[in-house]
Design goal:
Blueprint lengths: L2 E5 L3 H12 L3 E6 L9 H7 L16 H10 L1 H9 L3 E4 H7 L14 E4 L2 H13 L4 E5 L3 E11 L2 E9 L4 E3 L2 E4 L7 H7 L6 E6 L2 E9 L13 E4 L2 E7 L4 E9 L11 H9 L11 E2 L4 E3 L3 E6 L1 E2 L2 E2 L4 E3 L5 E2 L7 H19 L3 H39 L7 H12 L4 H11 L5 H5 L4 H6 L15 H8 L1
Parallel strand pairs: 1-2, 1-9, 2-5, 9-20
Antiparallel strand pairs: 3-4, 6-7, 7-8, 10-17, 11-14, 11-15, 11-16, 12-13, 13-14, 17-21, 18-19
Helix pairs in contact: 1-6, 1-9, 2-6, 3-4, 3-9, 4-6, 5-12, 9-10
Bound molecules: flavin-adenine dinucleotide.
Amino acid sequence: MGKIVIAGGGMCGMAAAMMLADDGHEVTVLERDAAPPPPDVGSAFDGWDRRSVAQFGLAHFLQPRGTSILKEQLPTAYELLSDNGGYHWNLVKFLLGLQPDASIGPDDDRFGLLTGRRSTLEWALATAANGHAGVTVRRGDAIAGVTTGTDVIPGVPHVTGLRLQTGEEVLGDIVIDATGRRSPTPDWLAAIGAVPPIEVAEDSGFAYYGRYFRSADGSVPPMMGPALAPYGTFSLLTLPADNGTWSVTLYGLSDDKDLRKFRDPEVHERVVRACPLQAHWLDGEPISEMKSMAGVVDRHRRFVVDGLPCATGLLSVGDASSSTNPSLGRGITLGFIHVELLRREIAKHFGDPAALALAFDEATENEMRPWHDATTTIDRRRVAEMRAELAGAPIESDPATQIANLLAAAGAQDAVCARTFGELSGCITLPADIFARPGLLDHIMSLAGKVSVEPLPGPDRSQLMELVS
Ligand SMILES: Cc1cc2nc3c(=O)[nH]c(=O)nc-3n(C[C@H](O)[C@H](O)[C@H](O)COP(=O)(O)OP(=O)(O)OC[C@H]3O[C@@H](n4cnc5c(N)ncnc54)[C@H](O)[C@@H]3O)c2cc1C
């Protein structure tokens, strides 16, 4: 097979490297950060210098679809994660267990997930990649741009490799951009005279404030409410992680200045304590400083314009191509779905760069983009709710929102809703495919009035202002 060069050794760069090496390619990963993965997950959390990944210290969660890709296609990384304290959970089995009449079947295993702190997830992938046949990882290699050769499609630049800041060139049959949400690819393309990609980008509007905790006995707090809980003008995210750790994150609108006080650990604690379904998630030892992040952009880039690739020989994957805001915990899972598509299309079109560029674009638009768009729709809806709450205006609920709210609320009482919610939140089945099922919408709507869609118990805006003052 061929030589593949990957720019960026984060979650998707490492996943792509191992999958493509398994298909017989010789893969080189060029990663800017010099530090290799530490020997264990504890030191990865405490001291792995991943300065190029701004979200490294913030809450992360791996969804069921991401878990199944990890298990089936990256088994060494899956085993490392599982054997080193990764947290196994199954939301749907948990919800069905609350329903006296429901029975759990073997098919419900598809809702199982394995997760951990971001440092642990990345440690498992990077450690697996280190020993993986066919993969060479070079660290401390910052990439400055791409090299080009003879056009495959006249007038369309053909990328033949990566140029490091040292001036060294690393050539390959295919170059993959996995440099994350701050990918410089548009600049690299501009430098070779390529048509710019079509970019749709919007600031999700949220600012996040979170930290990690650990229990003394290796347990994680019991779920008494949703992992992602909306409370008027803020949301609270409580996510179990590996080795008896978990994260507690508050987020609100980044222009809601009062909420910037969430950065103060005492304020953070007061607000979480005022949420009775989640207050017990503070009952552990804080193991990280309060970390915050704003300006998180939902962005999708399309690298085929007017039927022609911007460049051949270069394919962008993961956050470099499509990134979403983190409240639904989907970024890695969507990135892994994208890497699977990349693997499939390279297997079909290796040796034909023009066909590969077009086929990967088509696969991305048809099979990945709908997840991106569904996620940004949910973000926009939540931003609108927060803005309405702030303005004291009524919250306008469209039919899609009503169905989503009913589905989420009914999951603990109705088996169909539990499984449907699991398929959606776990990125198992696309929303359009789920809601095309005959009778499903009628079933969900029939529960209106039977399940409570009341707001969760917690502080209203004026109580919140007292808590942050
Ligand atoms: C606050 C926050 C919380 C999140 N929470 C979740 C969550 O709960 N669940 C989830 O699934 N996703 C979450 N995400 C999204 C998730 O972090 C990303 O989707 C995921 O990291 C994307 O992987 P990637 O490989 O595309 O990019 P990254 O993991 O960012 O990796 C990019 C790599 O490229 C390297 N690089 C960059 N530029 C260069 C260069 N010029 N030369 C060489 N190397 C370079 C970087 O060093 C880095 O290693 C969250 C994101 C944020 C911002």
